[in-house]
Amino acid sequence: MPIATVNPANGETLKTFEALGSAEIEHRLATADTTFREYRTTAFGERARLLNRAADLLDEDQQDIARTMTTEMGKPIKAARAEAAKCAKAMRWYAANAEGLLADEHPPADDVRDAGASRAYVHYRPLGPVLAVMPWNFPLWQVVRFAAPALMAGNVGLLKHASNVPQTAMYLEGLFRRAGFPPGCFQTLLVGAGAVESILRDRRVVAATLTGSEPAGRSVASIAGDEVKHTVLELGGSDPFLVLPSADIPQAARTAVTARVQNNGQSCIAAKRFIVHTDVYDEFAERFTAGMNDLTVGDPQQETTDVGPLSSEQGRADLEELVDDAVHQGATALCGGSRPTGLGAELERGWFYTPTVLSGITPAMRIHREETFGPVATLYRVEDLDEAVNLANDSPFGLSSNVWTRDADESRRCVRDLQAGGVFFNGMTASHPALPFGGVKRSGYGRELAGHGIREFCNATTVWYGPEPDGSGSA
Protein backbone atom coordinates (compact mmCIF):
# COMPACT_ATOMS: atom_id res chain seq x y z
CA MET A 1 0.00 0.00 0.00
CA PRO A 2 1.52 3.39 -0.95
CA ILE A 3 2.14 5.96 1.76
CA ALA A 4 -0.28 8.65 0.63
CA THR A 5 -3.08 11.01 1.56
CA VAL A 6 -6.12 9.98 -0.49
CA ASN A 7 -9.34 11.86 0.22
CA PRO A 8 -12.00 9.17 0.74
CA ALA A 9 -14.78 11.67 0.05
CA ASN A 10 -13.82 11.84 -3.63
CA GLY A 11 -10.99 9.35 -4.18
CA GLU A 12 -8.46 12.06 -5.03
CA THR A 13 -4.79 11.41 -4.23
CA LEU A 14 -3.53 14.63 -2.64
CA LYS A 15 0.02 13.81 -1.61
CA THR A 16 2.39 10.83 -1.70
CA PHE A 17 5.47 10.11 0.39
CA GLU A 18 8.60 8.05 -0.06
CA ALA A 19 9.19 5.33 2.51
CA LEU A 20 12.27 5.73 4.69
CA GLY A 21 15.35 3.91 3.48
CA SER A 22 17.43 1.55 5.60
CA ALA A 23 20.01 4.22 6.47
CA GLU A 24 17.36 6.62 7.80
CA ILE A 25 15.65 3.85 9.76
CA GLU A 26 18.99 2.96 11.34
CA HIS A 27 19.58 6.60 12.22
CA ARG A 28 16.21 6.86 13.91
CA LEU A 29 16.67 3.66 15.88
CA ALA A 30 20.07 4.84 17.06
CA THR A 31 18.58 8.21 18.02
CA ALA A 32 15.83 6.53 20.03
CA ASP A 33 18.35 4.34 21.84
CA THR A 34 20.65 7.24 22.70
CA THR A 35 17.79 9.51 23.74
CA PHE A 36 16.29 6.90 26.05
CA ARG A 37 19.48 6.61 28.09
CA GLU A 38 19.20 10.27 29.02
CA TYR A 39 15.44 10.78 29.01
CA ARG A 40 14.80 7.89 31.40
CA THR A 41 16.53 9.86 34.16
CA THR A 42 14.39 13.00 33.81
CA ALA A 43 12.11 13.90 36.69
CA PHE A 44 8.35 13.41 36.50
CA GLY A 45 7.90 17.15 36.86
CA GLU A 46 9.93 17.82 33.72
CA ARG A 47 8.09 15.17 31.73
CA ALA A 48 4.77 16.62 32.89
CA ARG A 49 5.84 20.12 31.86
CA LEU A 50 6.64 18.93 28.35
CA LEU A 51 3.44 16.90 28.01
CA ASN A 52 1.28 19.77 29.22
CA ARG A 53 2.98 21.96 26.64
CA ALA A 54 2.11 19.41 23.94
CA ALA A 55 -1.52 19.50 25.12
CA ASP A 56 -1.57 23.30 24.87
CA LEU A 57 -0.17 23.19 21.34
CA LEU A 58 -2.70 20.56 20.33
CA ASP A 59 -5.52 22.77 21.57
CA GLU A 60 -4.14 25.63 19.47
CA ASP A 61 -3.91 23.34 16.43
CA GLN A 62 -7.30 21.69 16.92
CA GLN A 63 -9.07 22.98 13.84
CA ASP A 64 -6.13 22.42 11.50
CA ILE A 65 -5.33 18.88 12.64
CA ALA A 66 -9.06 18.06 12.57
CA ARG A 67 -9.18 19.06 8.90
CA THR A 68 -6.13 16.90 8.22
CA MET A 69 -7.68 13.83 9.87
CA THR A 70 -10.96 14.34 8.02
CA THR A 71 -9.16 14.73 4.72
CA GLU A 72 -7.06 11.62 5.25
CA MET A 73 -9.64 9.16 6.59
CA GLY A 74 -13.06 10.75 6.30
CA LYS A 75 -14.37 11.20 9.84
CA PRO A 76 -16.88 14.07 10.24
CA ILE A 77 -15.10 17.29 11.10
CA LYS A 78 -16.95 17.73 14.38
CA ALA A 79 -15.79 14.23 15.46
CA ALA A 80 -12.23 15.09 14.42
CA ARG A 81 -12.22 18.18 16.64
CA ALA A 82 -13.56 16.10 19.52
CA GLU A 83 -10.78 13.57 18.98
CA ALA A 84 -8.13 16.28 19.19
CA ALA A 85 -9.69 17.66 22.38
CA LYS A 86 -9.78 14.17 23.89
CA CYS A 87 -6.08 13.72 23.16
CA ALA A 88 -5.18 16.96 24.92
CA LYS A 89 -7.28 15.87 27.90
CA ALA A 90 -5.46 12.54 28.10
CA MET A 91 -2.07 14.25 27.95
CA ARG A 92 -2.99 16.49 30.87
CA TRP A 93 -4.40 13.53 32.81
CA TYR A 94 -1.18 11.57 32.54
CA ALA A 95 0.91 14.66 33.26
CA ALA A 96 -1.03 15.07 36.50
CA ASN A 97 -1.26 11.42 37.53
CA ALA A 98 1.73 9.46 36.20
CA GLU A 99 3.99 10.02 39.19
CA GLY A 100 1.35 8.68 41.55
CA LEU A 101 0.53 5.73 39.30
CA LEU A 102 4.19 4.72 39.22
CA ALA A 103 4.97 5.44 42.89
CA ASP A 104 6.91 2.78 44.75
CA GLU A 105 4.68 0.08 46.23
CA HIS A 106 5.42 -0.98 49.80
CA PRO A 107 4.08 -4.33 51.05
CA PRO A 108 2.91 -4.72 54.67
CA ALA A 109 5.68 -4.72 57.28
CA ASP A 110 4.88 -8.28 58.34
CA ASP A 111 5.39 -9.50 54.78
CA VAL A 112 8.69 -7.62 54.53
CA ARG A 113 9.94 -9.28 57.72
CA ASP A 114 8.71 -12.67 56.51
CA ALA A 115 10.76 -12.14 53.32
CA GLY A 116 13.86 -11.75 55.49
CA ALA A 117 14.30 -8.10 54.60
CA SER A 118 14.80 -4.91 56.49
CA ARG A 119 13.14 -3.09 53.60
CA ALA A 120 11.43 -4.21 50.39
CA TYR A 121 9.35 -2.47 47.78
CA VAL A 122 8.40 -2.45 44.09
CA HIS A 123 9.90 0.24 41.88
CA TYR A 124 8.70 0.94 38.31
CA ARG A 125 11.35 1.63 35.66
CA PRO A 126 10.89 2.37 31.92
CA LEU A 127 11.79 -0.32 29.41
CA GLY A 128 13.19 1.64 26.47
CA PRO A 129 12.17 2.32 22.85
CA VAL A 130 8.68 0.95 22.14
CA LEU A 131 7.35 0.39 18.61
CA ALA A 132 3.73 1.49 18.15
CA VAL A 133 1.92 0.08 15.09
CA MET A 134 -1.22 2.16 14.82
CA PRO A 135 -4.41 2.26 12.66
CA TRP A 136 -6.08 4.99 10.66
CA ASN A 137 -9.53 5.08 12.26
CA PHE A 138 -8.61 7.28 15.23
CA PRO A 139 -5.30 8.55 13.84
CA LEU A 140 -4.57 10.91 16.71
CA TRP A 141 -6.23 9.23 19.70
CA GLN A 142 -4.87 5.73 19.13
CA VAL A 143 -1.34 7.12 19.16
CA VAL A 144 -1.74 9.54 22.07
CA ARG A 145 -3.25 6.94 24.37
CA PHE A 146 0.04 5.05 23.94
CA ALA A 147 2.40 8.01 23.73
CA ALA A 148 1.20 9.99 26.76
CA PRO A 149 1.72 7.20 29.33
CA ALA A 150 4.84 5.89 27.59
CA LEU A 151 6.56 9.27 27.65
CA MET A 152 5.51 9.96 31.22
CA ALA A 153 6.95 6.59 32.27
CA GLY A 154 10.31 7.52 30.72
CA ASN A 155 10.07 5.40 27.58
CA VAL A 156 10.55 6.68 24.02
CA GLY A 157 8.25 5.92 21.09
CA LEU A 158 8.66 4.84 17.48
CA LEU A 159 5.43 5.22 15.48
CA LYS A 160 4.62 3.11 12.44
CA HIS A 161 1.30 4.64 11.50
CA ALA A 162 -1.18 3.45 8.87
CA SER A 163 -0.04 4.34 5.37
CA ASN A 164 -3.16 6.38 4.58
CA VAL A 165 -2.65 8.94 7.39
CA PRO A 166 0.95 10.09 6.82
CA GLN A 167 0.31 13.77 7.47
CA THR A 168 -1.31 13.04 10.82
CA ALA A 169 1.64 10.80 11.67
CA MET A 170 4.16 13.53 10.86
CA TYR A 171 2.11 16.08 12.77
CA LEU A 172 2.47 13.97 15.91
CA GLU A 173 6.25 13.85 15.69
CA GLY A 174 6.34 17.59 15.14
CA LEU A 175 3.95 18.22 18.04
CA PHE A 176 6.19 16.53 20.59
CA ARG A 177 9.29 18.24 19.24
CA ARG A 178 7.61 21.65 19.36
CA ALA A 179 6.64 20.94 22.96
CA GLY A 180 10.33 20.54 23.82
CA PHE A 181 10.75 16.77 24.03
CA PRO A 182 14.21 15.66 22.83
CA PRO A 183 14.03 14.68 19.12
CA GLY A 184 14.47 10.97 19.85
CA CYS A 185 11.60 10.78 22.34
CA PHE A 186 8.94 10.33 19.68
CA GLN A 187 9.69 9.60 16.04
CA THR A 188 7.43 8.76 13.13
CA LEU A 189 8.69 6.04 10.80
CA LEU A 190 7.16 6.45 7.34
CA VAL A 191 7.56 2.81 6.31
CA GLY A 192 5.36 0.13 4.82
CA ALA A 193 4.10 -2.94 6.64
CA GLY A 194 6.98 -4.98 5.26
CA ALA A 195 9.49 -3.03 7.34
CA VAL A 196 7.86 -3.80 10.68
CA GLU A 197 9.52 -7.17 11.23
CA SER A 198 13.10 -5.95 10.93
CA ILE A 199 12.39 -2.94 13.16
CA LEU A 200 10.73 -5.09 15.81
CA ARG A 201 13.59 -7.59 15.72
CA ASP A 202 16.18 -4.85 16.24
CA ARG A 203 17.79 -5.26 19.67
CA ARG A 204 17.17 -1.59 20.52
CA VAL A 205 13.39 -1.97 20.26
CA VAL A 206 12.29 -3.55 23.53
CA ALA A 207 8.52 -3.92 23.12
CA ALA A 208 5.59 -3.23 20.82
CA THR A 209 1.98 -2.15 20.95
CA LEU A 210 -0.47 -2.63 18.11
CA THR A 211 -4.02 -1.52 17.48
CA GLY A 212 -5.43 -2.99 14.31
CA SER A 213 -6.67 -6.10 12.59
CA GLU A 214 -6.43 -9.63 13.92
CA PRO A 215 -3.98 -10.73 11.18
CA ALA A 216 -1.71 -7.76 11.91
CA GLY A 217 -1.83 -8.52 15.62
CA ARG A 218 -1.03 -12.16 15.06
CA SER A 219 1.98 -11.22 12.93
CA VAL A 220 3.42 -8.71 15.41
CA ALA A 221 2.80 -11.03 18.36
CA SER A 222 4.56 -13.95 16.66
CA ILE A 223 7.62 -11.84 15.79
CA ALA A 224 7.78 -10.36 19.29
CA GLY A 225 7.31 -13.80 20.82
CA ASP A 226 10.21 -15.13 18.79
CA GLU A 227 12.32 -12.26 20.12
CA VAL A 228 10.87 -12.55 23.65
CA LYS A 229 9.58 -8.99 23.64
CA HIS A 230 6.50 -7.72 25.43
CA THR A 231 3.43 -6.74 23.40
CA VAL A 232 0.03 -5.16 23.95
CA LEU A 233 -2.62 -5.85 21.31
CA GLU A 234 -5.99 -4.17 20.77
CA LEU A 235 -7.62 -5.89 17.82
CA GLY A 236 -11.10 -6.20 16.36
CA GLY A 237 -14.45 -6.08 18.07
CA SER A 238 -18.04 -7.04 17.41
CA ASP A 239 -19.54 -5.50 20.50
CA PRO A 240 -23.02 -6.53 21.65
CA PHE A 241 -25.64 -3.99 22.66
CA LEU A 242 -28.20 -5.71 24.91
CA VAL A 243 -31.62 -4.12 25.42
CA LEU A 244 -33.70 -5.69 28.20
CA PRO A 245 -37.33 -5.04 29.22
CA SER A 246 -36.60 -2.53 32.00
CA ALA A 247 -34.56 -0.28 29.69
CA ASP A 248 -35.45 3.28 28.76
CA ILE A 249 -36.22 2.34 25.15
CA PRO A 250 -36.26 5.83 23.56
CA GLN A 251 -32.90 6.66 25.13
CA ALA A 252 -31.47 3.25 24.28
CA ALA A 253 -32.46 3.64 20.63
CA ARG A 254 -30.98 7.14 20.38
CA THR A 255 -27.74 5.99 21.95
CA ALA A 256 -27.67 2.90 19.74
CA VAL A 257 -27.55 5.07 16.64
CA THR A 258 -24.54 6.99 17.91
CA ALA A 259 -22.89 3.81 19.18
CA ARG A 260 -23.16 2.19 15.74
CA VAL A 261 -22.16 5.06 13.45
CA GLN A 262 -19.48 6.78 15.51
CA ASN A 263 -16.47 7.38 13.27
CA ASN A 264 -18.59 6.37 10.25
CA GLY A 265 -19.06 2.98 11.90
CA GLN A 266 -15.33 2.30 11.71
CA SER A 267 -14.55 1.75 15.36
CA CYS A 268 -13.51 -1.41 17.16
CA ILE A 269 -15.64 -0.42 20.15
CA ALA A 270 -18.69 0.59 18.14
CA ALA A 271 -21.76 -1.44 19.05
CA LYS A 272 -22.42 -3.76 16.13
CA ARG A 273 -24.80 -6.52 17.28
CA PHE A 274 -28.07 -5.28 18.79
CA ILE A 275 -29.60 -8.01 20.93
CA VAL A 276 -33.09 -7.06 22.03
CA HIS A 277 -35.57 -8.81 24.33
CA THR A 278 -38.76 -9.78 22.54
CA ASP A 279 -40.90 -7.71 24.92
CA VAL A 280 -39.34 -4.46 23.68
CA TYR A 281 -38.01 -5.57 20.31
CA ASP A 282 -40.66 -3.97 18.09
CA GLU A 283 -40.46 -0.55 19.75
CA PHE A 284 -36.66 -0.54 19.78
CA ALA A 285 -36.37 -1.74 16.17
CA GLU A 286 -38.77 0.96 14.96
CA ARG A 287 -37.00 3.77 16.84
CA PHE A 288 -33.49 2.55 16.01
CA THR A 289 -34.25 2.13 12.31
CA ALA A 290 -35.85 5.56 12.12
CA GLY A 291 -32.80 7.09 13.79
CA MET A 292 -30.39 5.39 11.40
CA ASN A 293 -32.53 6.42 8.46
CA ASP A 294 -32.51 10.09 9.54
CA LEU A 295 -28.72 10.44 9.56
CA THR A 296 -27.14 12.87 7.10
CA VAL A 297 -24.55 11.23 4.84
CA GLY A 298 -22.24 13.56 2.96
CA ASP A 299 -19.13 15.71 2.87
CA PRO A 300 -17.29 15.08 6.16
CA GLN A 301 -15.91 18.64 6.16
CA GLN A 302 -19.46 19.98 6.62
CA GLU A 303 -20.71 20.59 10.16
CA THR A 304 -24.12 19.07 9.39
CA THR A 305 -22.75 15.70 8.25
CA ASP A 306 -23.36 12.73 10.55
CA VAL A 307 -21.74 9.99 8.46
CA GLY A 308 -18.86 10.48 6.06
CA PRO A 309 -17.19 8.01 3.69
CA LEU A 310 -15.44 4.81 4.58
CA SER A 311 -11.68 5.17 4.62
CA SER A 312 -10.99 3.15 1.49
CA GLU A 313 -12.63 1.66 -1.54
CA GLN A 314 -11.66 -1.82 -0.34
CA GLY A 315 -13.25 -1.15 3.03
CA ARG A 316 -16.55 -0.35 1.36
CA ALA A 317 -16.29 -3.41 -0.88
CA ASP A 318 -15.70 -5.63 2.16
CA LEU A 319 -18.76 -4.16 3.89
CA GLU A 320 -20.92 -4.61 0.80
CA GLU A 321 -19.92 -8.27 0.59
CA LEU A 322 -21.09 -8.89 4.15
CA VAL A 323 -24.43 -7.14 3.61
CA ASP A 324 -25.06 -8.78 0.24
CA ASP A 325 -24.26 -12.22 1.66
CA ALA A 326 -26.71 -11.69 4.53
CA VAL A 327 -29.52 -10.43 2.29
CA HIS A 328 -28.94 -13.25 -0.18
CA GLN A 329 -29.41 -15.72 2.68
CA GLY A 330 -32.64 -14.17 3.91
CA ALA A 331 -31.78 -11.14 6.06
CA THR A 332 -33.99 -8.06 5.72
CA ALA A 333 -32.61 -4.56 5.30
CA LEU A 334 -34.89 -2.43 7.48
CA CYS A 335 -33.05 0.60 6.08
CA GLY A 336 -30.04 1.19 3.86
CA GLY A 337 -28.26 -1.74 2.30
CA SER A 338 -26.77 0.18 -0.62
CA ARG A 339 -24.60 3.08 -1.67
CA PRO A 340 -26.23 6.50 -1.23
CA THR A 341 -27.37 8.56 -4.17
CA GLY A 342 -27.85 12.26 -4.72
CA LEU A 343 -24.59 13.35 -3.09
CA GLY A 344 -23.38 15.28 -6.12
CA ALA A 345 -20.88 14.49 -8.85
CA GLU A 346 -17.72 14.87 -6.77
CA LEU A 347 -18.93 12.90 -3.76
CA GLU A 348 -20.30 10.15 -5.99
CA ARG A 349 -16.64 9.21 -6.49
CA GLY A 350 -16.20 8.81 -2.74
CA TRP A 351 -16.53 5.64 -0.68
CA PHE A 352 -19.85 6.22 1.04
CA TYR A 353 -22.31 3.63 2.34
CA THR A 354 -25.82 4.21 3.63
CA PRO A 355 -26.50 3.53 7.34
CA THR A 356 -28.07 0.08 7.41
CA VAL A 357 -30.03 -2.10 9.83
CA LEU A 358 -30.33 -5.82 9.09
CA SER A 359 -32.74 -8.18 10.83
CA GLY A 360 -33.25 -11.91 10.49
CA ILE A 361 -29.57 -12.73 10.99
CA THR A 362 -28.65 -16.43 11.20
CA PRO A 363 -25.37 -18.18 12.10
CA ALA A 364 -24.95 -19.21 8.45
CA MET A 365 -24.36 -15.61 7.43
CA ARG A 366 -20.83 -14.24 7.41
CA ILE A 367 -21.99 -11.08 9.14
CA HIS A 368 -22.92 -13.15 12.20
CA ARG A 369 -19.24 -13.94 12.85
CA GLU A 370 -17.25 -11.21 11.12
CA GLU A 371 -16.70 -7.61 12.18
CA THR A 372 -18.64 -4.99 10.21
CA PHE A 373 -16.38 -1.95 9.85
CA GLY A 374 -18.90 0.57 8.64
CA PRO A 375 -22.40 1.92 9.43
CA VAL A 376 -24.16 -1.46 9.37
CA ALA A 377 -26.04 -2.88 12.39
CA THR A 378 -27.36 -6.40 12.92
CA LEU A 379 -30.55 -6.78 14.94
CA TYR A 380 -31.46 -9.90 16.95
CA ARG A 381 -34.61 -10.84 18.88
CA VAL A 382 -34.14 -12.95 22.05
CA GLU A 383 -36.58 -14.50 24.52
CA ASP A 384 -34.71 -13.99 27.79
CA LEU A 385 -31.47 -12.92 29.46
CA ASP A 386 -29.88 -16.36 29.09
CA GLU A 387 -30.32 -16.25 25.34
CA ALA A 388 -29.07 -12.65 25.22
CA VAL A 389 -25.86 -13.45 27.12
CA ASN A 390 -25.20 -16.60 25.11
CA LEU A 391 -25.66 -14.73 21.84
CA ALA A 392 -23.47 -11.86 23.02
CA ASN A 393 -20.69 -14.33 23.84
CA ASP A 394 -21.09 -16.18 20.54
CA SER A 395 -18.31 -14.20 18.89
CA PRO A 396 -14.58 -14.64 18.46
CA PHE A 397 -14.19 -11.09 19.79
CA GLY A 398 -14.49 -9.69 23.30
CA LEU A 399 -13.58 -6.02 23.32
CA SER A 400 -16.49 -4.34 25.10
CA SER A 401 -20.25 -4.61 25.61
CA ASN A 402 -23.28 -2.42 26.28
CA VAL A 403 -26.27 -3.38 28.44
CA TRP A 404 -29.50 -1.47 28.89
CA THR A 405 -31.33 -2.50 32.04
CA ARG A 406 -32.51 -1.03 35.33
CA ASP A 407 -32.62 -4.42 37.03
CA ALA A 408 -29.82 -4.97 39.58
CA ASP A 409 -29.85 -8.76 39.21
CA GLU A 410 -29.52 -8.50 35.44
CA SER A 411 -26.62 -6.09 35.87
CA ARG A 412 -24.78 -8.44 38.20
CA ARG A 413 -25.36 -11.34 35.83
CA CYS A 414 -23.93 -9.40 32.89
CA VAL A 415 -20.84 -8.31 34.83
CA ARG A 416 -20.27 -11.94 35.78
CA ASP A 417 -20.92 -13.59 32.43
CA LEU A 418 -20.28 -11.29 29.48
CA GLN A 419 -16.95 -12.15 27.85
CA ALA A 420 -15.56 -8.69 27.22
CA GLY A 421 -12.99 -6.21 28.45
CA GLY A 422 -15.74 -3.81 29.50
CA VAL A 423 -19.43 -3.77 30.39
CA PHE A 424 -21.13 -0.37 29.96
CA PHE A 425 -24.61 -0.01 31.45
CA ASN A 426 -27.23 2.38 30.07
CA GLY A 427 -24.73 4.13 27.83
CA MET A 428 -22.25 3.42 25.06
CA THR A 429 -18.69 2.19 25.27
CA ALA A 430 -16.13 4.95 25.42
CA SER A 431 -12.49 5.20 26.42
CA HIS A 432 -11.24 7.51 29.17
CA PRO A 433 -7.70 7.97 30.48
CA ALA A 434 -8.73 6.98 34.02
CA LEU A 435 -10.22 3.61 32.96
CA PRO A 436 -8.30 0.60 31.60
CA PHE A 437 -9.11 -0.34 28.02
CA GLY A 438 -8.61 -3.63 26.18
CA GLY A 439 -10.23 -6.94 25.33
CA VAL A 440 -10.23 -10.70 25.61
CA LYS A 441 -10.40 -13.57 23.12
CA ARG A 442 -9.41 -12.41 19.63
CA SER A 443 -9.79 -8.78 20.59
CA GLY A 444 -6.27 -8.94 22.00
CA TYR A 445 -4.53 -8.76 25.36
CA GLY A 446 -2.98 -6.26 27.70
CA ARG A 447 -4.47 -2.92 28.64
CA GLU A 448 -4.13 0.68 27.64
CA LEU A 449 -4.94 3.78 29.70
CA ALA A 450 -5.23 4.24 33.47
CA GLY A 451 -2.55 2.77 35.73
CA HIS A 452 -2.76 -0.55 33.93
CA GLY A 453 -1.70 1.07 30.66
CA ILE A 454 1.26 3.04 31.96
CA ARG A 455 2.63 -0.03 33.75
CA GLU A 456 2.47 -2.22 30.62
CA PHE A 457 5.80 -0.84 29.45
CA CYS A 458 7.53 -0.65 32.81
CA ASN A 459 9.85 -3.03 34.61
CA ALA A 460 8.22 -3.81 37.96
CA THR A 461 11.48 -4.10 39.90
CA THR A 462 11.58 -5.82 43.29
CA VAL A 463 13.96 -3.96 45.63
CA TRP A 464 15.08 -5.96 48.67
CA TYR A 465 17.43 -4.96 51.51
CA GLY A 466 18.83 -7.61 53.83
CA PRO A 467 18.56 -7.55 57.63
CA GLU A 468 20.13 -4.70 59.53
CA PRO A 469 23.49 -5.47 61.21
CA ASP A 470 21.77 -6.12 64.54
CA GLY A 471 19.84 -8.93 62.81
CA SER A 472 16.48 -7.50 63.77
CA GLY A 473 15.21 -7.44 60.19
CA SER A 474 12.77 -4.71 61.17
CA ALA A 475 11.06 -2.84 58.33
Structure description:
The chain has 475 residues and is α/β, with parallel strands linked by helices. The chain has 15 helices and 19 strands. The strands form five sheets. A seven-stranded mixed beta sheet has the order 11-12-13-10-9-15-16, sandwiched between helices. Strands 6-5-4-7-8-18 form a six-stranded mixed beta sheet, sandwiched between helices. A two-stranded antiparallel ribbon has the order 1-2. Helix 7 links the parallel strand 5 and strand 6. The chain is globular and about 80 Å long. It starts with a strand and ends in a 10-residue tail after the last strand.
Please give the order of strands in the largest beta sheet.
11-12-13-10-9-15-16
Gross morphology: globular
Characterize the main sheet: 7 strands, mixed
Oligomeric description of these chains: single chain
Unreliably modeled segments: none
The computed structural class is: alpha/beta
**CATH fold description of the largest domain:** Aldehyde Dehydrogenase, Chain A, domain 1
**The CATH homologous superfamily of the largest domain:** Aldehyde Dehydrogenase, Chain A, domain 1
| CATH architectural category of the largest domain | 3-Layer(aba) Sandwich
Mean pLDDT over all positions: 97
Q: Measured on Cα atoms, how large is the radius of gyration?
A: 24 Å
Instruction: Give me the count of strands.
Output: 19
CATH class descriptor of the largest domain: Alpha Beta
| Tally of contiguous helical segments | 15
Strand content bin? 15-25%
| Whole-number total of structural domains | 2
Helix proportion: 40-55%
Distance from N terminus to C terminus (CA atoms, Å) equals 59 Å
